[in-house]
Structure formats: structure tokens, C-alpha cells
Amino acid sequence: MNKAKRNDIRLIPGGITRPKTTITNKTGFWRTFIPIFNEERCNKCGICDIFCPENCIIINEEGYRHPNYDFCKGCGICAEECPKDAIKMILESKEG
Amino acid sequence: MSSQLFAPGHTACSGCGMPIAIKLILEGSGKDIIVVSPTGCLEVTTTRYPTSAWGVPWIHSLFENAAAVASGIERALKVLNRDANVIVIAGDGATVDIGIGALSGMFERGDNVTYICYDNEAYMNTGVQRCSSTPYGASTTTSPVGKLSFGEDRPKKDLPAIAVAHGVPYVATASIGYPKDVIRKIKRAKEIVGPKYIHILTPCPTGWRFDENKTIEIAKLAVETGLFPIYEIEGGTLIKVKKIKNRKPVEEYLRLQGRYRHILKGFKDQLEIIQEIADKNAEKFGLDG
């Protein structure tokens, strides 16, 4: 009886998706201006990383941060907030 | 810093303040959480079917019942003897207008849920319609400036005060311009049992009409002018306020935003009223110092 009752319960689960699957969506093509990070001026403070809305800043082997251009939408918050003026926004030319 | 719990590839507008708030929330909360989000920018940009940006369990409720869904999850976790923090992350429309009934119920029952409102001060996802969180003087598509209108004619609803009136043990406001402060408040909320309410200001380049690289500057200016005071209230007592040295005139905040352009072009009375709002905040919370 109990078993039958349990089987009668049908939950409609709605849409279920896998975690962190938005990485298939390369938002980098939205970009007009591209941030260029200058390692010589960088003091590794990480402010660019804290404020990046895309969460797309990665740290390289030497500990310097660079954006993943696959996702960077070119908002320029990193360049605006960088205390060392180590990030420049330049008009991006796209090939093809 | 870069939160491992939130993936890139979401479709929030370039320069959006909301995902910055999400990163800070996840940094403070850690991975043992269940997030409930009602309809809003957050839902449509981070969970475009069949993808999700979330690295923690996340559920979409209806527009109006995020608080009730969170209460249900909290009860279920208790019954199952499992340990996780239930967090609601909702926009201002879902919080101050549409979901306020369910939210009031959650506060009143004393459920152990952290309710976080990211406030972009209008219905941005559907095209910048005013809501009760829209500040005085702002032009939106449903409070447009024109011959007979100077924009929104009602002051911003004070939801933190409504939460305090419910006897909520922890109420805080924050701005993404001060990331350490946001993370600290999320961590503090985790330590308190019972309902918690945190209100975070997240500027919106699309709806507020400013350059997309100015998001953080504007988030700071809202605080520095006194228009968005950041404070903490525990057990009904104001325990901490972010003091402002040399409070800036409100023009500095307004002039960067298209939604206020008309105010500076000729609505002098309204400009004075906006300055009065900032002055009253400063007096009420003792901001100057």
C-alpha cells in the first residue's frame, strides 16, 4: 500500500540543467573595446578580478591576471578601477 | 578571489552590477548553500535553458513566492537533518513589489533564510519600468520625463525599515562599490539564526543610462552623496554605519546618469528635494563624520 502510494507521487521537475554550463556561450563576440593588461605596471592587487562582471579573469603562472577573451564583453570596469593604470581599452579590429 | 561557483558565459549586459554582487555573495556564503531566485534579470541571464551559470544548487520560483519556496526548502532540510544555508537572491521588483507578501510571511515565521535583494531600482529585465524601489526624479519608461512629468514622483520604498519592523534579527544595506563590506555582511548573516535581510545596490548601465565602465564609480557615489546609506541593524539596533567624510552634493551622482539628465537641466525644485532626501539620510543615520 505504502509503496503504491509512493509511486503515485509524480513531481514535475521542470527544466533541469547541469552546473556551470554557460561556458558554452562565448560572450566575447559582444565586445567593441578590448582590455589589454600590462604586466609591467601591474602590482597583482586583484581589483580587476573582484569587479569583473563576467568572472572571466584568470591568473597566469607568474601570478599576473588576464581576461579570458572568450567571455570578456569589454565593459572596461577593470580599466576604470585599476589603481595602477595597467589596463588600456583599445578598439578591437575583428578579422573574418 | 574569482568565485569558482559562478561561471562566465551568462548574458547580463556589459558592465552589469548584478553579477558582481553575485560573485561577492558566493564568496561570503561558500558552497554549502541552496539559492532561490524569482523571475528577474538574474534568472533570465544566468539560467538560459539548457544552460546554467551556477555552481551551487539553484532553483527558480515564481515571481512572487521566492521567500515561501525558501521557507519550504529550509523546513525540508530540517526534516532530512541536512546542513545548508538557504539564500534568496531576488531583484528589487520581486522583493519590494511582487514578492513582499511572501517575504513578510517569511520574516514573520522567523524562518532561517538569508534574503538578499539586488537593487537596480526598476524592472530592468522587461525594459526599465518603474517599481516602488525607483528613486524620486528618475525617468523610466513608465515614469517618463515630459511636459507634465519630472519622472518618478514617489520616494523609494524603504524595505530595510519594513524588515526591521518585522523584528528581523539582522538587516543590512550594502553597495557593490565596497566589496569587502558586502562579503563581511554575507558572512555575518550566516552566523545568525532566523531571517536575515540584506539590500545591495547594483547599478544598471542600461536602465540608469551611464557608460558601462562607470558601474563601480556610481555604486560608490550613491553612498558618498548620502542617497544610499549603508548600515547594519542587529536586533533592531543600528550597530554600524559607513561614515562619509565630506559628503558630496547629489549632482555628482545624478550627472553621470541619463535617467536624471532632465533634473540637472531645469527641474531645480526636484533637485532640491533629492538633496533633502540625502540630507535626511545623513541626519537619520549619522553619516557625516
TrEMBL record, chain A:
> Has keyword Iron-sulfur?
yes
User: Which cofactors, if any, are listed as required?
Assistant: [4Fe-4S] cluster
Q: Which domain of life is it from?
A: Archaea
How would you summarize the oligomeric state and partners of this protein?
Answer: Heterotetramer of one alpha, one beta, one delta and one gamma chain.
Q: Does the keyword Protein biosynthesis apply?
A: no
The record ties this protein, via SUPFAM superfamilies, to: 4Fe-4S ferredoxins (SSF54862)
Q: What keywords are assigned to this protein?
A: 4Fe-4S, Electron transport, Iron, Iron-sulfur, Metal-binding, Pyruvate, Repeat, Transport
This protein is called Pyruvate synthase
- Domain 4Fe-4S ferredoxin-type as annotated: residue spans: 33-62, 63-92
Q: Pfam families from the xrefs?
A: Fer4
GO-annotated molecular function: 4 iron, 4 sulfur cluster binding; metal ion binding; oxidoreductase activity, acting on the aldehyde or oxo group of donors, iron-sulfur protein as acceptor
Automatic annotation (TrEMBL), chain B:
What PANTHER family does its record include? PYRUVATE SYNTHASE SUBUNIT PORB
Q: Where is the Thiamine pyrophosphate enzyme TPP-binding domain?
A: 39-200
Enzyme category, top tier = oxidoreductase
Q: Which UniProt keywords apply?
A: Oxidoreductase, Pyruvate
| Database matches in SUPFAM superfamilies | Thiamin diphosphate-binding fold (THDP-binding)
Which InterPro entries does the protein's record reference? PorB-like (IPR051479), THDP-binding (IPR029061), TPP_enzyme_TPP-bd (IPR011766)
**What's an example of a GO molecular-function annotation for this chain?**
pyruvate synthase activity
Endoplasmic reticulum is among the record's keywords: no
EC number(s): the record gives 1.2.7.1
Subunit note: Heterotetramer of one alpha, one beta, one delta and one gamma chain.
Q: What is this protein called?
A: Pyruvate synthase subunit beta
Q: Which organism is it from?
A: Methanoliparum thermophilum
